[in-house]
Amino acid sequence: MIFNKQNTPRWLIFMIDLAIVLGSVVLAYLLRFNFSIPQVELKPLPQILAYMVFIRAVSFLIARSYAGIIRYTSTSDAIRVVVTVFSGSLLFAITNLVTYFLVGRFFFIPFSIIIIDFLITCLAMVTFRMVVKIAYLEMQRPERTNVDVIIYGAGEAGITAKRVLDRDVSTKYKLIAFVDDNPGKIGKKLEGVDVVGRDKLPGLLESNTVGQVILAVQQFDTERKQELVDLCLEHEVKVLTVPPAMEWINGELSFNQIKKIRIEDLLEREEIRLDDRQIREELTGKTIFITGAAGSIGSELARQIMNYYPGKLLLIDQAETSMHQLELEFSENHIDRQTGFIIADIRNAVRMEHLFLDHKPDIIYHAAAYKHVPVMENNPSEAILTNVNGTRILTDLAIKYKARKFIMISTDKAVNPTSVMGASKRIAEIYAQSLNGDDHPKFITTRFGNVLGSNGSVIPLFHSQIEKGGPVTVTHPEITRYFMTIPEACELVLEAGTMGKGGEIFIFDMGKSVRIVDLAKRMISLSGLTLGKDIQIRFTGLRPGEKLFEELLNSRENTVPTHHPRILIAKVREYDPAEVFPRIDELIRIAGSGNEKEIVKKMKAIVPEFISRNSVFEELDKE
Fold first, then answer.
1. Model pTM?
2. Residue-by-residue DSSP string for 75-133
3. Helix or strand or coil: residue 447?
4. What's phi and psi for 275, nearest 5 deg?
5. Does residue 316 contact residue 342 with C-beta atoms inside 8 Å?
6. Using alpha carbons only, what angle is made at residue 540 by residues 537 and 544, rounded to the nearest 5 degrees?
7. pLDDT digits (tens, 9 = 90+) for 20-37
8. Would the CA dihedral through 339, 342, 348, 354 be positive or negative?
9. Lowest CB count within 10 Å: 86, 156, 220, 371, which one?
10. What domains can you pick out in the chain, each with its CATH number?
11. Are 548 and 474 in contact (CB under 8 A)?
12. What's the CA gap between 483 and 511, in Å, rounded?
């Protein structure tokens, strides 16, 4: 009955506890007198037994140590048992003092018996509960599957992960070994499990039917992590990861938090070191605008800027649903202080002027733009009206209302553009750069490539396609892209915006380019699927305006370093405002007419390096 699914009656637990108490007292006497109790000690034993059992019974009733559901015994239940038993033993000690000083200078219960009894009772009561719990878990799911596991990391996170696996009722995990890089731990045992070095991992994967490797290292070198994951995938072993301790629920790791490693985890790079003091001086107490605030970059900029306590933060976007979700997030996390959530279109000059007039921003982060290459290739007028004219409206207002800085978020597709989108961003760069002057705001441009998890990234698309069973679509076998995480990109934007003196185009170190087909294959493997068997990759051909390889610098440009190793300044051609402004005004006028061919022809005149690829506008290059 103790092991069945019905809760064991409390009276039965209470009686078992009293039986343990009785047995503990007898065993304490036997141990104290080497299993030969003298006659003089046997005579008062019945009275002592009755008294000790009575006191224990009262203490159990007061503390309700028998009331918990025994098959769910936890650490807090064990602590309650120990405290309750200690309280009874303390009363026994007080009884001894009373009999010694007030009755007849004798100890009613030998102090050695009190100590031995305390230890035996605690051990027996806790052990009883744990045995019942383990037996219940084993009997409840006798059919549960067995999985061999290796935990990489023999630190606190690794031990915690092992205990979480032990508690899982759906699967019986067998821990083969802990793997660790610390020589001081290698060769030892941790909770009965061997700790081995990393060099032993390939042998363990080959000689055992390992189902999972759990990464339980809080600070993991990215390159080392990638090598480890590749090794596991070669042996068709699933890789899971333990989240950072700060993300554990109420300081405790739950089984659901041990998740499959994501491709985003493998593409991360070393942590960026920011000049936090300078950024704080730049942002604290200031009025700040963020356009495109509901997007991937804009919303992350907002989260990071809030850490620097701006005086007022105005988040501007025309996407109602996304903005509402951002407002809910800020409210739930209590970071909505001095924050305004404004629905507005940057192309609406009147609406923008009202915002500038009412709030007079010190700093503008301009992230609003159309970014999808194939979509803008089919809608060049919209690319110009938003990416170029929207930027012009904002920059002109920044000058009129004497903002201090204007930081524009651009893209690597503005370098040697092959698409309408890339060329529109390059024209916006040119306009902002040409405005820089001594009596104007500092206009600063930042360029970077694809960001992981953004709306335009291939990774969410691949995730969706894999979940549906495929096929995973890649445009070309050789296409490559640069990637960085959204937080990383935003940190570099803040740093570049702080160091900018005006007129610069900052480019970010994007690391190594990644072949998209390799990315797709890796994501398929991480999902536990086999390419060619469970899922297929299908090549669809380059999309309109799409490049095979992305560039961060024009071939005629070079760079100069900054104090930050991940940020460079591009040396770019300077434009004469008197020459370029009328041409941009004419482009915006043509965009309003909707004549797509004339729009793109004018764009190519402003940006001579704009050569269309896989586009209906390639004929213009021949002309």
1. 0.69
2. HHHHHHHHHHHHHHHHHHHHHHHHIIIIIIS--SS-HHHHHHHHHHHHHHHHHHHHHHH
3. strand
4. -80, 80
5. yes
6. 145
7. 888 888 898 888 888 888
8. negative
9. 156
10. 10-139 (no CATH), 145-261 (3.40.50.720), 276-452+483-510+550-606 (3.40.50.720)
11. no
12. 8
pLDDT tops 80 at residue 325:
yes
Is the pLDDT score of 4 beyond 70?
no
CA nearest 439: which of 409, 410, 408, 403? 403
Beta strands in 385-481 (DSSP E): 405-409, 442-447, 450-452, 472-474, 480-481
| 54: amino acid identity, one letter | F
465-488 tens-digit pLDDT: 888 888 999 988 988 887 778 888
Helix (H/G/I), strand (E/B), else coil: 482: coil
In whole angstroms, give the CA distance from residue 199 to residue 547.
42
DSSP E strands, 191-322: 193-196, 210-215, 238-241, 259-260, 287-291, 312-317
For residue 442 the two structure tokens come to 């500092």
Band the pLDDT of 425: cuts 50, 70, 90: very high
Q: Which residue reads 């909505």 in tokens?
A: 336
Residue with tokens 């004419």: 586
Q: What is the Cα–Cα distance from 169 to 71, expressed in whole angstroms?
A: 12
As a whole number of Å, the end-to-end CA separation of the chain is 90
